[in-house]
Amino acid sequence: MFRLTFAIVFLCISLCQAQTKKPVVPGKNAAAKNTSTKDSSDVKKDPEVTEEAPAVPKEFAVYSIKPKTKGKRMKLCVNLVSDTVILNHCVNDSLCKDPEISKVIFERREGDTLYVLVNIEAFSKVLDKPECDAGKESKLFYARWNTKTNKAVVKQRSYSSCMRGMTNMTKEPVANWDGKSPLILNYHRADKFVELKFDPQQYLLGIQSNVSENN
Fold first, then answer.
1. Which of 58, 113, 182, 214 has most Cβ atoms within 10 angstroms of its Cβ?
2. Cα(184)–Cα(166) distance, rounded to whole angstroms?
3. What are the backbone angles phi and psi of residue 118, rounded to the nearest 5°?
4. Rounded to whole angstroms, how far apart are CA atoms 83 and 171?
5. Is the pLDDT of residue 46 over 50?
């Protein structure tokens, strides 16, 4: 009888503890389950931050970079290569687009410095100026490039531009230049007759002109 009474009491106590026992709260270090994360594709990305420039070529190239963001300007890039060193120089240029002709027409090394002259020619590519459908946008690109520090002083001069009203009056095309005698280019713009000169015997002077002009 005593054993039966003790068993009944023990059973009642066990039932009461089971009803009042609190659920276990996960510890701070416990891993959460069934949590959701927002897909990155749903996040609106800022184009100013996420827009990436195209990969820099590993060989000589002249090319245009079209802006992906409204309000940005098109760029013209000249990529020079010397052994394992690359100089990629880009300028704002919405006229000389996707050049059909780009060639290094002069190159001379002096110590760590490389002097380079590049001829760039493109057909005018516009939609709102039909008179320039067969026009040209042409320029010379001159660089004094220290290949040890990879720093350069760059100058450029246009000698033909239908979009800017520059008429090329040069007698011989640049492609016919022998690379030894002075390269002389002439153009007319507004009321000015301009002469550009590059003398391979005085290449340190770069592109010389009888008229000072930034273009």
1. 113
2. 16
3. -120, 135
4. 36
5. no
pTM of the model: 0.73
Does residue 93 register a pLDDT over 90?
yes
The chain-wide mean pLDDT, for the chain, equals 82
H helix and E strand count, the chain? 2, 11
Q: Please say whether the beta carbons of 156 and 139 come within 8 A.
A: yes
Residues 58, 49: Cα–Cα separation, whole Å: 25
Give per-residue burial for 112-126: e unless 16+ CB within 10 Å, then b: ebbbbbbbbbbbbbb
53 pLDDT band (50/70/90 cuts)?
Answer: low
In the numeric block, the tokens 């023990």 are attached to 10
Burial of 187 (0-12, 13-18, 19+ CB in 10 A): buried
Over 2-69, what HEC string results? HHHHHHHHHHHHHHHHHHHCCCCCCCCCCCCCCCCCCCHHHCCCCHHHHCCCCCCCCCCEEEEECCCC
> In the sheet that 183-189 helps form, which strands lie side by side, from edge to edge?
101-110, 113-123, 136-146, 151-161, 166-168, 183-189, 192-198, 208-209
**Beta bridge mates, 112:** none
